[in-house]
Amino acid sequence: RSQRYSYGVWNDKQVACYFNDDYELIGQKLRDSNKNFTTRGSSWSKSPLFGQHLFKGGRRVTVCEGEIDTLTMAQLTELKWPVVGVPNGAQAAAKAFSNNLEFLESFEEVVIMFDQDEAGRKSAVQCAELLTPGKARIANLPGKDANELHLNHKSDQVVHSMWNAKTHRP
User: Fold this and answer.
1) From edge to edge, which strands make up the β-sheet containing 13-19?
2) How far apart are alpha carbons 112 and 104 in whole angstroms?
3) Pair 61, 106: CB distance under 8 Å
């Protein structure tokens, strides 16, 4: 799954590759073991969503707060449903949504599955309100995030949260 999303390890750093719609590499985000991030390439203020190049609209897309949660959700849904991630966390998620509205609007439903901390919940509402009313659904996870739940053997709860996400009503 990480190969499909072009995520790997290089010099002891995790590397997430970002592509444009023509599948050209435009940037990389590197993460070290202490969760320090550096970027190479693209103008990150206009970056596509992580994994966006893999999908072209459809029934439902799940948007996660980061690359690792994106990969976790892709694995848990067996790559059967589109999953993408915001590139710069909750604090910049609304900007990422704004920059990629055309892509997000190409889906009937947009499930927002951000971390369950205060920043993630607040950002999920902000992002939902950028979309056409009735399109956004906000997932309520029974733990911090998708990856943590998966590592704690609660994968079924993550998938359940995606399917039972509540439609956001402004």
Assistant:
1) 7-10, 13-19, 25-31, 37-41
2) 11
3) no
Strand partners, 112: 63, 138
Indicate the DSSP class of residue 124.
H
**The predicted structure's pLDDT at residue 2:** 62
pTM above 0.90, yes or no: yes
pLDDT at 163 over 70: yes
Strands in 6-161 per DSSP E: 7-10, 13-19, 25-31, 37-41, 58-64, 83-85, 107-113, 136-138
Predicted local confidence at residue 42, as pLDDT: 65
| Count of alpha carbons within 13 angstroms of residue 135, beta-carbon side | 21
Q: Are strands 107-113 and 136-138 parallel, antiparallel or unpaired?
A: parallel
Q: What is the number of other CB atoms lying within 10 angstroms of the CB of residue 48? A: 20
